[in-house]
Amino acid sequence: MNMIDATICLLLAAKIHGTDQALRDTAKSLVKKLPRSSRGMMFAIINSKKPMVLLSRVVEDVPVPELSSAMGAGGSSETEGCAN
Predict the structure, then answer these.
(1) What are the DUF7740 domain coordinates in residue numbering (predicted)?
(2) Considering the domain boundaries, does residue 55 fall inside one?
(3) Distance between CA atoms of 14 and 56, rounded to whole angstroms?
């Protein structure tokens, strides 16, 4: 498991359960599956008084690549025939 997988798990726990305790429990289970060098954020969430706020601040700083640049300049031929 890598940090991207762990972050997605945390975001899903926040979306599905919406509680601080759910985030702490998820982080506790994930910390065992991550390499030691990547466990810092999990421990920060576990020890935080408000993990939901901490997670939202962490996610705000994550750059999201544009879909068009990830697919190439021309786009995908699969999406050209889709109706809106």
Answers:
(1) 1-61
(2) yes
(3) 10
Domain that holds residue 29: 3-61
68 in a domain, yes or no? no
SS (H, E, C) the chain: CCHHHHHHHHHHHHHHCCCHHHHHHHHHHHHCCCCHHHCHHHHHHHHCCCHHHHHHHHHHCCCCCCHHHHHCCCCCHHHHCCCC
Domain count, the chain: 1
**Banded pLDDT at 11 (limits 50, 70, 90):** very high
- Name which of 38, 67, 63 is nearest 27 in CA terms: 38
- The pTM of the whole model exceeds 0.90: no
Question: Using an 8 Å Cβ cutoff, are 2 and 37 in contact?
Answer: no
Instruction: Indicate the Cα dihedral angle 36, 38, 40, 44, nearest 10°.
Output: -120
Query: Which tokens go with 29?
Result: 């289970």
